[in-house]
Every structure is written in structure tokens, then in C-alpha cells.
Amino acid sequence: MSDDSLAAAPTANVFEAAGGEPAFRELVGRFYARVATDHVLRAVYPEEDLSGATERLTLFLIQYWGGPGTYSQQRGHPRLRMRHQPFAIGRRERDAWLAQMTAAVDSMELAPAVRKAMLDYFDAASTAMINTGGSDGNQTQD
Questions:
Q1: Is 123 exposed, middle or buried (0-12, 13-18, 19+ CB in 10 A)?
Q2: Is residue 43 assigned to a domain?
Q3: What is the CATH number of the domain that holds 71?
Q4: How far apart (Å, rounded) are the C-alpha atoms in residues 21 and 59?
Q5: 8 A C-beta contact, residue 44 and residue 92
Q6: 9 assigned to some structural domain
């Protein structure tokens, strides 16, 4: 499949073009290896062992990009903002998360259109998780 046809394809083709479940497991494994050593992000994850978070993100991304719906079967509707509400996520945490995910994506051998689709999604989704400060994660002025 060419990058041009992939750009207009549904997310199921991103799942397949990325390499299916093994590729998403590798991506998320690389991401959490980086999270484990990032002092900003490590403070956001309450679990000593990141294996639960690793599995949840892996299953979510597999489902989001068109793979099996195991995430919803096990956990119900994703409700990302609700699930992240207990954690203080500001611009700093968002930027750290996006930097580590971008590095993980860039460490993979992905087609340019797959890389772009993923990074565009991660940029928008990470921004939507900000729940401290103003709408952009900055403190509002009174």
C-alpha cells in the first residue's frame, strides 16, 4: 500500500500498515522504557511496576487504530479524559509525554504516513488530557 492511499485510508489500515499487534507492543514497550527514566512522567504513574499501564495503552492503541477490540471488552469505553482525571496533567507533563512517545515512534521503522497519523493523534490526544491550569495547561491570570 502506498503512503498516498494510506493517508486517506481508515484507521484499520494504519493498524495493518504499522505491523499489527507486534508493532504496537514494541512501540508501547519502547515508550514505557523511556517513561521509567523520565522524572516528570514517572511522577504521574502511581504504580511501581509499569506493566499494567503498558498493557492498557497497548490494547487501547491496537483498538484505536483498527485492531481487535480487546481494550473495550476488558475495560469498557475508553473515556480517556475521565480515566486521566485523577492525575495532575499540565503542559509540562503533556510535553514530556509527547516527547517520549515521539521518540518511541521515531525509533520504529514506520512508513511516513503511518508515522504522521500516529504523531498527529498523539499530539491532539495528549493536549486533550491536560487538566490543570487554563485550557492550554497554563495557569490562568485573575
A1: middle
A2: yes
A3: 1.10.490.10
A4: 9
A5: no
A6: no
Domain residue limits at 69: 16-128
The gap between the terminal CA atoms of the chain, to the nearest Å, is 53
- The CA-atom distances, in angstroms, between 130 and each of 24, 90, 135, 136 are 24, 5, 8, 7
- Alpha-carbon torsion, ordered 47, 39, 126, 89, to 10 deg: 80
The CA distance from 90 to 87, in Å, is 10
Q: How far apart are CA 123 and CA 42, in angstroms?
A: 20
Taking residues 26-30, what's their average pLDDT? Answer: 98
CA dist., res. 45 & res. 40, Å (int): 10
pLDDT tens sequence across 60-118: 999 999 998 877 766 666 566 556 666 788 999 999 999 999 999 999 999 999 999 99
Q: What is the pLDDT of residue 4?
A: 41
- Closest listed residue to residue 70, CA positions, set 105, 21, 138, 130: 21
Q: Of all residues in the chain, what percent carry a pLDDT higher than 90?
A: 59
